[in-house]
């Protein structure tokens, strides 16, 4: 079988005309990388929703729930002020992340941040963006309320999670015991992480996540199916957008 031909298009994140590397007929969510910035389909879809939602991206103050990543490095060039952060990393891993940033031309220190307890002032940000993080947080409600707290009126929370569109209600598949041990209700589920190799998943999200966002303080909450072959998105990707 002949290898799949690259899909030619225009990356909405780095704005380059490029070939998207990978099989456009396969599962593209974590693949189909931009030949210029290296970001995958899920990241491009979320970036497109974010940048379209911002009134003035060039002056916007944005918090991203990651820092040592190609996505963060690329998004820095698209918004006015980008704050990143990593969660739950020890000293050795923090040093590896720091070296990664420096090698990729990002000369800032790695900051430890927790989406359930941010140090940002009330209504101080224009946007928060989070990519496949909420499913790894035990208290989803606390994270959603904190995202709402730090956003100004009209600010936007853009995020992705593994979404189950055939499910009306979300399901918690794991809990954290008082001693810190993760206890799964069924088969253990871990998701890949570029550095640690895997982190436990606590939730499978369904359509009630929209109601959870409204209860947390968002005036409007939607889940979008982002589809644009010219942007390296030949298959629709689910992206949530909540407006404060």
UniProtKB/TrEMBL annotation:
The name this protein goes by in its record: Methyltransferase domain-containing protein
Mind listing the UniProt keywords for this protein, alphabetically?
Methyltransferase, Transferase
Identify the residues that the record assigns to the Methyltransferase type domain, covering every copy: 109-159
Cite the GO molecular-function annotations of the record: methyltransferase activity
Q: Name one GO biological process term.
A: methylation
Q: Which Pfam families match?
A: Methyltransf_11 (PF08241)
